[in-house]
Amino acid sequence: MTAPLPTTPPPGFRVWALPGIPEVRPGDDLVKLIAAAATADELPGLADGDVLLVTSKIVSKAEGRIVEAADRQAAIDAEAVRVVARRGELRIVENRLGLVMAAAGVDASNTAAGTILLLPEDPDASARALRAGLRDALGVDVGIIVTDTFGRPWRSGLTDVAIGAAGVRVLDDLRGGVDSHGNPLNVTVVATADELAAAGDLVKGKASGLPVAVVRGLPHVVAPGDGGSDLGARALVRNAADDMFRLGTSEAVREAVTLRRTVREFTDAPVDPGAVRRAVAAAVTAPAPHHTTPWRFVLLESESSRVELLDAMRDAWIADLRGDGFSEESIAKRVRRGDVLRKAPYLVVPCLVADGSHTYPDARRNAAEREMFVVAAGAGVQNFLVALAGERLGSAWVSSTMFCRDVVRSVLSLPENWDPMGAVAVGHAAAPPRERPARDASEFFSVR
Ligand SMILES: Cc1cc2nc3c(=O)[nH]c(=O)nc-3n(C[C@H](O)[C@H](O)[C@H](O)COP(=O)(O)O)c2cc1C
């Protein structure tokens, strides 16, 4: 038995390339060239609801975005606002349009030898101009997508994406709806403009001199009129702050070190104990002498444990200052500076346990042995702080516990051989750390 014919045709669309567009030169009228190509006799013409996929190269050429090839690196620098990843000569950068792409889209292909092409100055504006021009020339309401070719993280191969758009619903937000099983769609926002760009690339190709394609049959993706809701392809750019993959792997590792800065003001937001445990796991991968593991971390998770320790340390400090002969007023002032620990929502006391250290018959070598363990403790704490920064937690490593070790051991019931190595205040930074100019490495090394 044959199935009954459906009453409405299944979804489908047509895509074709426009032949006959000549090599574009600076100052050429793209509207004219595209209108002439689209209305050639053997083609179906253009109609309301069509979407034109226009290769950015011809837009750049028409707009005169051509520079001498000798300036390629300088052109990349000028277009880039941030390096996302670098491997040898290859630079993946975020350009001034927010697009993350190789070499800022500065391209030496598809252009005369000795010259390079920059992306259009404002691809959304270019798309709007084409849309308006075609409406004037042919009386049709079409969507325009300006396309470029991108590689993608995790995926081999290149594909076209939308870098400019006009009159196109570039994103299809399905959140709040349900799938065919009734499951809620919580994250599904379809990148329609990129899908259309890729469809156009199937017929345009890279070397075939076909820079424009037409998609017909998807009129719902074309937004009628020029309403303020026309977001352009800008809407497809993911905000770097929301991007879980903001940096390449090497760059992220490098940045982790500089991300760590002393944070002395915290919000009230609680600290995730799991994040602290992950940071401890990173801490104990630090180098240490004789294959020892001299690090211990006392996590002060209850407020009472923190207050009891801080009160006892304050009393010990006051006793020291009185012994030094400071006035009560001056003592009060100094003690107030200890507030960084009191205001933190979480404290950690890193300790050095020098189990496995060697003993020598002389003081010189015993002192060196002790220093080895102390620097290893520092390496562990630095690992800990860097890992906390990777968890987006701020920290301040302060010295206080080192100056009253007996008191700390007594209040926290620590074994005699645990040497507190300061205290680490942990929390969510109330404000970004103050900018600090990069230090010139050459002032910190000497070469022999
Ligand atoms: C062993 C050690 C002890 C420290 N003690 C204190 C301290 O008692 N109080 C304080 O506010 N900061 C203390 N710091 C933090 C430094 O002041 C801080 O690292 C420095 O200002 C550099 O800023 P940055 O960490 O943001 O790079 C200490 C740092 C280290 C490594």
Automatic annotation (TrEMBL):
Per the record, which residues fall in region Coenzyme F420:L-glutamate ligase? 1-248
Q: Which UniProt keywords apply?
A: GTP-binding, Ligase, Magnesium, Manganese, Metal-binding, Multifunctional enzyme, Nucleotide-binding, Oxidoreductase, Potassium
How are cofactors bound according to the entry's free-text note? Binds 2 divalent metal cations per subunit. The ions could be magnesium and/or manganese. Monovalent cation. The ion could be potassium.
Q: Where is this region: Disordered?
A: 429-448
Which stretches does UniProt call biased (Basic and acidic residues)?
Answer: 433-442
- List positions binding a divalent metal cation 2: T149
Q: Which residues bind FMN?
A: A288, S399, R436
Q: Where is each Nitroreductase domain found?
A: 260-428
Provide the catalytic activity annotation. oxidized coenzyme F420-0 + FMN + H(+) = dehydro coenzyme F420-0 + FMNH2; oxidized coenzyme F420-1 + GTP + L-glutamate = oxidized coenzyme F420-2 + GDP + phosphate + H(+); oxidized coenzyme F420-0 + GTP + L-glutamate = oxidized coenzyme F420-1 + GDP + phosphate + H(+)
Residue limits of the Coenzyme F420:L-glutamate ligase-like domain?
21-217
Q: Name one GO molecular function term.
A: coenzyme F420-0:L-glutamate ligase activity
In which residues is a divalent metal cation 1 bound?
Answer: D107, D148
Q: Where is this region: Dehydro-coenzyme F420-0 reductase?
A: 249-448
**Family, per the entry?**
In the N-terminal section; belongs to the CofE family.
This chain's function reads: Bifunctional enzyme that catalyzes the GTP-dependent successive addition of two or more gamma-linked L-glutamates to the L-lactyl phosphodiester of 7,8-didemethyl-8-hydroxy-5-deazariboflavin (F420-0) to form polyglutamated F420 derivatives, and the FMNH2-dependent reduction of dehydro-F420-0 to form F420-0.
The protein's matches in NCBIfam families, at most eight in alphabetical order, are given as: F420_cofE, F420_FbiB_CTERM, PRK13294.1
What name goes with this protein?
A: Bifunctional F420 biosynthesis protein FbiB
